[in-house]
Specification:
Blueprint: H1 3-19, E1 27-32, E2 38-39, E3 43-44, H2 46-61, E4 65-70, H3 82-95, E5 100-104, E6 113-114, E7 117-118, H4 119-124, H5 126-136, H6 153-164, H7 169-183, H8 187-193, H9 197-219, H10 222-239, H11 241-244, E8 248-249, E9 260-265, H12 276-286, E10 291-294, H13 304-311, H14 313-316, E11 321-327, H15 335-346, E12 348-351, H16 360-363, H17 368-386, E13 391-396, E14 403-407, E15 411-416
Parallel strand pairs: 1-11, 1-12, 4-9, 4-10, 5-6, 5-9, 7-8, 10-11
Antiparallel strand pairs: 2-3, 12-13, 13-14, 14-15
Helix pairs in contact: 1-2, 6-10, 7-9, 13-15
Length: 424
């Protein structure tokens, strides 16, 4: 195991022992700009911080923990490489020797017990799974959650193959028209924009042209038809019963145990990101009052609603706590993501760096003094990074001293008292 990688974990654990001491918080944000928190003489990546958090939180708060680690996370130190995965696995075995370690995904080459989530968890999370599937399908724009509630694994596989395949000619035209309406601001604005006869004729001619383009593509364009065939085969390959059966089961068995449960997965991307809520739901079916720790987000550009669902678990499930790593550079500035970041920094968080588009979420309820202090500290943190030091900001809304600058090596450096009241 790399000494610099081990050192990064040990320093993170030492700092978190001082920070994860109270039980008041429901959300703990771990915020960074990207996935490389520090890569000088010490290597620090999201999985080390989240592992350390899981260990400390379980020991301090006495709650069961679900830690989900993304094997496809970005960064120079790829966890998909057999050598780096072996290094990660050795770290888990060394620092979390009693953890229940599993893999969730379609790979066959990992020497780790496989996690099979039950279809019952798909049904219980049907609302968000249906919304997530509609977001990535080119064939449907809306899915009724009720459709998922009477399926077994084979039914679900067949359904996925169907909705993830290429659209028919009629469906293609319908969806292109719908997208056109949405670009004009929705149905009401669309109708208003067609108020003049000239505009209406212009649109109808444009629509007719688009209609014939679609017909031509589907009927006569050989290259286009080949792409549709490829899309159909891809859907069968990704969502066949043999593949989905590696992640889901009809039987209800409890895969999680008391203590820390570590799940390695490569399902955070577009193809399988809709299953991340299923893993979480499977855990919550066993341990309602547990702690969920994720070292990444499902692909934000398509799964912003899933991210919002994850962030809202403490509100929806009594006794549930959430710790979430947020690589803010990869988040679109859509309402769901801004709201999610806002919630993850509102109670308790540590911030290594941050996309400037989300900086206001840190101080929007604070005084101008806090605003100015944060700006100053971010500049200082960058200077220290160039000197080979890793600093981060700690915020705790429940403490009198609720803003601190902390050195990864040395501990607390500077503190700012809470001089503003929270607005509810």
């Amino acid at each position: 195991m790399s000494e610099t990688y081990l050192k990064g974990y040990e320093l993170a654990e030492a700092r978190l022992r001082d920070l994860v001491t109270a039980n008041k918080w429901s959300r703990f944000g771990i915020i960074s700009y990207d996935y490389e928190l520090f890569t000088n003489e010490t290597l620090l990546y999201p999985e080390q911080v989240c592992m350390a958090f899981s260990k400390v939180a379980h020991k301090t708060l006495g709650k069961n923990v679900l830690l989900v680690i993304n094997l496809n996370r970005k960064g120079k130190l790829s966890l998909n490489n057999p050598e780096t995965f072996d290094m990660l696995l050795k770290l888990v075995n060394k620092k979390l020797p009693e953890a229940n370690t599993m893999y969730f995904g379609v790979r066959e080459d990992l020497n780790v017990e496989r996690l099979l989530a039950s279809m019952e968890s798909v049904k219980e999370a049907a609302d968000i799974v249906a919304e997530a599937l509609a977001a990535i399908s080119e064939k449907v724009r809306k899915i009724k959650p009720e459709k998922l509630k009477n399926m077994n694994v084979e039914d679900f596989s067949n359904f996925l193959v169907k909705i993830m395949g290429p659209p028919s000619t009629l469906k293609d035209m319908s969806m292109r028209l719908q997208k056109g309406i949405e670009k004009r601001g929705g149905a009401t604005k669309f109708i208003a924009s067609m108020a003049s006869v000239t505009r209406l004729i212009e649109y109808l001619l444009t629509g007719a042209k688009g209609f014939f383009i679609v017909i031509k593509q589907h009927a006569f364009d050989k290259e286009f038809k080949e792409k549709l065939k490829e899309k159909e085969e891809e859907a069968k390959s990704l969502y066949s019963y043999d593949v989905i059966g590696k992640m889901l089961a009809d039987e209800e068995e409890t895969p999680f145990r008391e203590g820390v449960n570590v799940v390695f997965t490569d399902c955070f991307g577009r193809n399988y990101g809709f299953l991340i809520p299923v893993i979480i739901q499977e855990f919550l079916r066993t341990f309602n009052e547990g702690i969920i720790v994720l070292d990444d987000l499902p692909q934000p550009d398509v799964y912003s609603k899933v991210i919002q669902w994850i962030v809202n678990r403490p509100d929806e499930v009594e006794g549930c706590k959430l710790a979430l790593f947020v690589p803010s550079a990869y988040l679109p500035t859509v309402e769901e993501c801004v709201d999610s970041v806002r919630k993850m920094v509102s109670e308790k968080c540590i911030v290594f760096d941050m996309n400037s588009d989300f900086f206001h979420t840190l101080h929007e309820r604070a005084s101008a003094t806090v605003h100015a202090w944060l700006y100053e500290k971010f500049f200082e943190m960058e200077e220290k990074r160039r000197e080979g030091e890793c600093y981060f900001i700690h915020h705790d809304a429940f403490e009198e001293v609720n803003w601190e600058v902390i050195s990864l090596r040395k501990g607390k450096i500077e503190r700012l008292r809470g001089i503003f009241r929270r607005i509810f």
